[in-house]
Specification:
209 residues
C-alpha cells in the first residue's frame, strides 16, 4: 500500500524513483518527529526509521532541519491546494467557511502524525527556511480570513474578525490533543459540529451588538 504522503506527492506530479524515495523518507521522518520530538530526534534515528544508511540519508537531506522544512512545506502546500479545488464549486459564503473547516479537519485527521508535528514544532525553523514556512502559514491564515470577511459582509455581521478567526484556529489546530473518533465522530461529522459552533458564535455576537 502506498503511503498517504507518497499518494499526495504523486497526485501533484508524475512520480520518479527519487520522488517515491523522498516521500517515504518524509513519512518516516514525520513519524520520528512525532514520537521523539524534533530536538530529541537524531539523524541516526531518522536513518534507522527510513531504512537508509546515514550516508544515504545525507544524500537526500543535509540536516534534520531540512527534513522538517520539507514536511511542513508539503503539508501546508497540499492542504491549501485541496482547499482551492474544493472552493471552486462553492459560492455561498457560509458554505465556503464550512468548506475551509471541513478541508482542514479531513486532511489533518488523515495525516494525524503530521498534524502533531506541525503544531509542536511550529517555531523551530529559522532564517530563510523559517521565513518561507511562516509565509505559507500566513497565506493559509489569510485564506480563512478572506472567507470569514466575505461572510461578514454578505450577512452584515458585526464581530471582531481577528478574535473569531484566531478562536477558530485555536480549536482546529490543537485537535490532536483531545480528538477521539470513538467519542467525537469522524472528520466530516466533527467539521459540521465545529462549523456550527463557530457560525452560531459569530451570528450571536452580531445579534447582541
Amino acid at each position: 500500500m502506498t503511503s498517504a504522503l507518497a499518494s499526495d506527492l504523486s497526485a501533484r506530479s508524475p512520480e520518479t524513483r527519487f520522488e517515491r524515495q523522498l516521500a517515504k523518507i518524509l513519512e518516516h521522518a514525520t513519524a520520528v518527529f512525532c514520537e521523539k520530538g524534533y530536538e530529541n530526534a537524531t539523524m541516526r534515528d531518522l536513518s534507522r526509521a527510513s531504512g537508509l544508511s546515514l550516508a544515504g540519508l545525507y544524500y537526500y537531506f543535509e540536516s534534520k532541519e531540512k527534513l522538517l522544512y520539507l514536511i511542513q512545506k508539503h503539508y501546508f502546500t497540499t492542504v491549501m491546494g485541496q482547499l482551492s479545488e474544493r472552493l471552486k464549486d462553492v459560492s455561498d459564503p457560509e458554505e465556503r467557511v464550512r468548506t475551509f473547516i471541513q478541508n482542514h479537519l479531513e486532511y489533518f485527521v488523515a495525516h494525524f502524525k503530521a498534524y502533531k508535528v506541525l503544531s509542536h514544532e511550529d517555531d523551530v525553523l529559522q532564517d530563510e527556511l523559517g521565513d518561507e514556512i511562516f509565509a505559507l502559514k500566513r497565506e493559509y491564515y489569510h485564506s480563512c480570513a478572506g472567507l470569514v470577511e466575505a461572510l461578514k459582509r454578505e450577512k452584515g455581521l458585526k464581530f471582531n474578525s481577528r478574535i473569531a478567526i484566531m478562536g477558530l484556529f485555536g480549536s482546529i489546530n490543537w485537535l490532536h490533543t483531545w480528538y477521539n473518533p470513538q467519542v467525537d465522530g469522524d472528520a466530516p461529522s466533527l467539521a459540521r459540529q465545529i462549523g456550527d459552533v463557530f457560525l452560531r458564535g459569530i451570528y450571536a455576537t452580531s445579534a447582541r451588538t
